Fold each of these.
Amino acid sequence: MIQNQLLTGLTALITRPRGQGQSIVDAIAGAGGKSVQFPLMEINPVSSDESVIELRKQVQNLDRYDLLIFISTNAVKFGFQWIDRYWPQFPAQLEVFAVGPTTAAALTGLPCTVHSPSTGMQSEDLLALPQLQQVQGNKIALFRGRGGRELLADTLRERGAQVDTIETYERSMLVPETGELLNSISENGVNVICVTSMQILDSLCHLVDIKKDGIGLLPLLVPSERIRDNARTAGFVNVYCSYGASDEAILSELKEIAGYLSS
């Protein structure tokens, strides 16, 4: 099979947040497939006066922490918009951790080692790292978006660490008409849906009736086992896991799905 035709016959619905889907669209096209962007979420920096004041104070005191943890590429993107402003020279004593290889890659260039699990991209994988087993007395800054899972912060506190959550961005659902989504799927011949977060899956499930509208019969690609389990509970029948939300991980699993579709 010719390399650039590995995805021939596949048309993916890309639901990544607004403005963040073009790289995977280009990768799919380069492999001979098609895609349709249909963002179900947008991500913006925190903007309320209270949030900005708190964020500024936390970042200005960055050298008082022992460990920094970034939970996503958005945490890196929006976090460093503040860190670069107040720390042109990154504090050398800090240990840095990332949830997943894509987030770790976004931290390339820091003058320190970035620790990241090789086994997965979930909080549970990060918490299994040897470096985070004995954290009693450590002061940890957790860069993340507003809301989301509390498992990471709560577990590190149970292990004796002081954890401050530094919320640098906020998510908001985009709410198109149900008919708009269904028409986009039908008119473009979409035969696989790509979801890259639990929040996007929730948005999709709120927008349509998974079983009644027939969406649950389409192959669904998700980045983790936790989201796969939730998708199956929601009514999706054919759920594939890419074990990561990077373009490379998604493209690799799409090639497997394309092989299934053509068989």
Note: The two ends are 14 Å apart (CA to CA).
Amino acid sequence: MAFDVLDEHEQGELVQKWLRENTLSILIGVGLGLVLIFGWQQWRRHKAVHSLDAATQYQVFSDDLAKKDNDGAKAIAAKLQSGFADTPYAVLAAMRLASDAAASGDPAEANKALRDAYDRASIPALKTLAGLNLARAEISQNKAQDALKLLETLPQDGYAALRDELRGDALSALGRGDDARKAYTDALTHLDANAANRAFVQMKLDDLTGAEKKGS
């Protein structure tokens, strides 16, 4: 007999029988659902608190740098890297340390900090930014070939103009004038007419072309 032609009493009996036979499964399912919901909420709350703690530590790190308390800043940076490596703040702190080391005339320390930032970065855009800074540092330390290899492995999203400009710098340092000129030209295509660094890239291209004409 089809279920849709049963009278109300028969339908009620079937429903009660089904409930009796499946009560345990229903209770387990409801309990599991509540556990999952509670667990998801707890996880989100933990992530929010963890991120807030990381942001607070990074603010202390920035304050220490502003006060020229390098030892304090390095201690906080180490704490970010050990306890908050899954947040962007550990990467940002490493890049700030690199900038500070470069300004202090310590390129080796700057390179080390940038390498650490690049290795730790999990967000593609942040990894690209750290990699571009690392490539710039390598070019300045006569490691143009290493910089070129690094630029070729970076995530491709974003910073196209800077990527091509640095590629031009590396190729120029390696004596590959034609390739460098193309890289600078590519960089210019990604820059607006009023971009702040457009004139600088154009100057690099003009200097390279002028040097080649003078040498011919």
Note: Residues 8-66 form the longest helix (59 residues).
